[in-house]
Amino acid sequence: MKLTRGAHILYLDASFGTGTPEWFKVGSDIDDLSIELNPDVSVNKNILDETSVLHNGYEPSADITPYYANPEDSIYPKLRNIAMNRLKGGDCKTSALEVIVEDTDDTAHMAWKQDVVVAVSSYGGDTSGFQIAYSINYEGERTQGTVTLVEKVPTFTAGSTYSGF
């Protein structure tokens, strides 16, 4: 059985590190969202016709567009502040939580938490509504663990307690 697109859930901590994580589920109004890994790979061929591949890792990111500004969304005040006050650096840091739900009957799901920088790329948009387009840029190490979802609210526990790892 194939997983549906909804099996991969992306959350951002709307508290931006100012207290208990307030997980905002990314994806409303979006019909296509991928985490771009942006691999850093060099392929070299020498004079002996030998090929070597150097893989230096990844620089993952995701573009969130459109995000229709909604004052009821927990993430909205921070995105507005980043955009209108041109915030940068540490003022744009938070955490992302990625969850894969392979079996909806399970109580714990595979999850990874990682620090990210949120960068607003534009705001405005067309007559469909006020939009704030932003990117999520991953940094640092990922922490693997599990998530339990109670009334659609995730609780992350670090560690590989999920039997599928």
Outline the fold blueprint.
Layout: E1 8-13, E2 23-25, E3 39-45, E4 51-58, E5 61-64, H1 76-84, E6 93-100, E7 109-124, E8 131-150, E9 153-158
Antiparallel strand pairs: 1-2, 1-6, 3-4, 5-8, 6-7, 7-8, 8-9
Describe, in plain words, how this protein is organized in 3D:
This protein has 165 residues and is mostly beta strands. It has a single domain (5-38, 58-158), classed as Pnp Oxidase, Chain A (Roll). 5% of the residues lie in helices and 47% in strands. It is globular.
Short description:
The chain has 165 residues and is mainly beta.
**SS elements, strand count:** 9
Topology order in helix (H) and strand (E) letters:
EEEEEHEEEE
Largest sheet, strands/sense/barrel: 7 strands, antiparallel
Helical residue percent band? under 10%
CATH class: Mainly Beta
Q: Uncertain runs with pLDDT below 50, 5 residues or more?
A: none
Strand content: over 45%
Discrete helix count? 1
Oligomer: single chain
What count of domains describes the coordinates? 1
Shape: globular
End-to-end gap: 19 Å
At CATH's second level, what is the architecture? Roll
Strand-pairing-aware structural class: mainly beta
Instruction: Please state the CA-atom Rg, rounded to the nearest Å.
Output: 18 Å
Instruction: Give me the CATH fold name.
Output: Pnp Oxidase, Chain A
Mean pLDDT: 94
